[in-house]
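Format notes (please read before filing issues)

Several people have asked whether sequences and structure tokens are stored in separate files. They are not. Every record keeps both together, in the order shown below: the sequence lines, then the token lines. Line labels are part of the format and must not be stripped during preprocessing.
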Amino acid sequence: MNRVVTEKEIWENTPSFVLDKLALEENLNTLKDALQKYWPNYKIGYSYKTCAIPWLLRYLKKEKIYAEVVSPEEFYLAKRIGYEAKDIIYNGPIKTKSTIEEALSANAVINLDSQREITWVKEIVGNNPDQQFTVGLRVNFNVEEHCEGETVAGKKGNRFGFSYEKKALENAVNSLAELKNLNISGLHMHVSSKSRSNNLYSTLARKAIQIAAELNLQLSYIDIGGGFFAGGDFNSRFYDYIKNIAEELSEKYTAKNLTLIVEPGASLIASPISLYSRVIDVKDSFIERLVVTDASRCLIDPFMHKTSYQYEHVESGANSFLQSSLSGFLPNELLAGKFLESRQTKETQTICGYTCMENDRLMQLENEQEIKIGDGIIYHTVGSYTICFNPLFIKYLPSVYLKKENQFVLIREAWKVDNFLTGDISVEYEKDF
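Then the structure lines:
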């Protein structure tokens, strides 16, 4: 059962993630409002890969949000959460024949990505001539030609979907057209973007219209994908994105005859999640002040490229919950007189993590107040592609708490050794090897 706890328990069990339910609701409601205002015929598919905390997935299901999944594992996770297959948006390059058949039979949104998927679809559809099916196709086109410098892939181009320029998309359409009981009902336009600009999304919508006209496709949806730079302090940008997309779609369609699908991940979950951590040690090397914490880049910077964060330094003597947790955290001789110590401004302080890697240095503070043993550091806006990338390296998965106004609820216990050993069957036969 979920368990209500105090903030003191969170500080006693760092590192821990905290999900602010109110912030999540604000993000989701703003996106819904923007869609309702500019294109009221819509589906929101939450990107499971961004952060798949089970509580979050169940909450989004209650909010009538579709599950956007990109693997058989995520497909079956959505079903375990309680989704019917028809409420799943199935993307990605590693679908299996069995999950494709299940999605097709349920009339789910399924966007094909490869030739093997086309082959399987033709076999499945051909074996069921009395049933009507629909699929979508993932589009691969030269986005940089229209939005120079804006994509993650750059001039190398996107690696997903069927190439427009090389006629692979046209060939896919012609191949599927052989099936009289199959309709290509949608185009999936998602592109990984660096800029996250309005221009990019306008380009995607415009290209979808062009392709549909050229290939004579009778579309019932356009899936614009995700990657929006919104949420938290930038919630108003949802309105800009959807307005620009809607203006392009309106050149050919109306909200009455076309569904707009969006697939947010980070824009919903990044800003509501914070990581609580504590300072374990402070030491001076010959060159710098090192602040050792129980956080790690492994927890909030899995790609090892960030150099700064939205953070909050919590003095141990200024927070009653943190202060009361110190007795079990610091030896008595360090605890005695701790709150009478003066603090100076330090020229540099390097915040380090718990691993044994030299590059586990989260950030460098310059001319900031001195950080001391037992203090807390809270990293804000760390919900995107962090928890899902947390490794089993040195430490196991941390706790996750839900913040509901001024209450905290434990929604995932920290992993222990027993969790790590789950699934190990080698002990049953190791004597034979």
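For reference, the curators noted about this record: The chain has a mean pLDDT of 94. The first strand starts at residue 3 and ends at 5.
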